[in-house]
Amino acid sequence: MVREGCPVTERSQLRRVEVDHVDFEGVLRRGHLVVNADTAETAARIFTRLYEEGFPIRRMRGVEKYGGDTLRSLQADNTSAYNCRRPDQINAPVLESPHANGRAIDINPRENPWMDLRCKCWSPGPENAPRTPGPGKILRRDVVWQTFIDEGWIWQNIPVPDYMHFDTGYPSTPYTQPGS
After folding, report:
1. How far is Cα 93 from Cα 160, in angstroms, rounded to an integer?
2. Is 0.85 topped by the overall pTM?
3. Which end of the chain is more exposed for a tag (fewer CB within 10 A), N or C?
4. pLDDT band at residue 90 under the 50/70/90 scheme
């Protein structure tokens, strides 16, 4: 949702990346991410690899399906990317935010929660906060982590746990492929 006050001012700065994924029942699904134009190719490569590896993703829809509401998207266990969040939903200055710039991806939020310091609670819930192996979970050095790292992305680069979150750097700057 492009809106006034966001760093992305025109839809032409964004791309819809459609990718296949398997859900938690092993069923083939087609989902999409809305990302910055400069991250479209890397996002497609990453999610193609995760599909090939059989990594399960509950659902993958743009946050517009949830009215741009981050919490609703997280509670739905929705994998998403671009979101210029409302002022009451942000934890970074909007112009610097990787999500508001389309350069961040949150994967399986229920399996990979983050610590919200506003409430000192795990969001969207605490049940998967322990980093033990399980379907849809991201662990350091696993296939998800390695795939993003190989593409030059950074995992949870804030001072609190944010297990679902990968971005291209904070503050958000245009993506450059490693070795470029």
Report:
1. 17
2. yes
3. C
4. low
What's the rounded Cα separation, in Å, for the pair 110 and 68? 18
Which comes out higher in pLDDT, residue 92 or 106?
106
What is the distance between the alpha carbons of residues 141 and 149, in angstroms, rounded to a whole number?
Answer: 9
> Who wins on pLDDT, 88 or 171?
171
Domain-embedded: residue 43? yes
| 28 beta partners | 22
| Residue 2 in domain | no
Q: What is the pLDDT of residues 57-84, one digit of tens each?
A: 999 999 999 988 889 999 999 999 999 8
State the Cα–Cα distance between residues 53 and 62, nearest whole angstrom.
23
- Using CA atoms, how far apart are residues 150 and 133, in angstroms rounded to an integer? 21
Q: Please state the domain count of the chain.
A: 1
Could you give the CA distance from residue 178 to residue 153 in angstroms, rounded to a whole number? 9
80: containing domain: 11-88+95-167
- Give the CA-trace dihedral at 125, 126, 127, 133, to 10 degrees: 110
Per residue in 141-156, pLDDT tens? 999 999 999 999 999 8
Closest CA to 166 of 89, 77, 102: 102
Would residue 157 count as lying in a domain? yes
First-to-last alpha carbon distance for the chain, in angstroms, is 31
